Amino acid sequence: MQEPRCGIPDLFNTNESTFHMVSHYSFFRGRSRWRKRSLKYSFNINVKEEAKPPLERALKEWANATPFRFFHVKQSSKAHIRISFLHGDHGDGLPFGTIKGGLAHAFGPNDGRVHFDADEKWASNGDKNAYDIQFVGLHELGHILGLGHSRIEKAVMYPIVDLGERKHLHEDDINGVKALYKF
């Protein structure tokens, strides 16, 4: 049985060279990062209204732990971060319904795409039979900020998630962002 996980590969579990490992956290290769601290985000029209508040809470949690500030814009063409719920093969090389696509995946700084598998069961109310949208969003936003996966199971950036599981930022997640951005 495959474990539900993020669609981004782990340097410490594969031969892929997507990440550069440092301590327990990792960065995207080349340590790509945003040059600004104010980032605009948008929701694709396929994002249900009930998914928006938990995703905004995830953005707020990163904002509370970092110098980043996030601002909602309606037009995705003006957004740095674009959040979507998509089905199957959606054209980015990480199709949902396969290990490759995972439950969700995000592309690093300066790309800003965050994709959730629309065919999964998502909730934010503690439903033990669904994936927690706020927690998975928090994880994927870590990728948006430039973090790879962590080896620490309690860290948000750990790549495997259980149904109903909710985590909050861990010291390792915050130390990773601080190391990447040097603040």
UniProtKB/TrEMBL annotation:
Signal peptide: none annotated. Pfam families: Peptidase_M10 (PF00413). The keyword Ubl conjugation does not apply. Residues 30-183 form the Peptidase metallopeptidase domain. This is Peptidase metallopeptidase domain-containing protein. Keywords: Hydrolase, Metal-binding, Metalloprotease, Protease, Signal, Zinc, Zymogen. SUPFAM superfamilies: Metalloproteases ('zincins'), catalytic domain (SSF55486). The keyword Protease applies. It comes from Penstemon davidsonii. Its cofactor is Zn(2+).
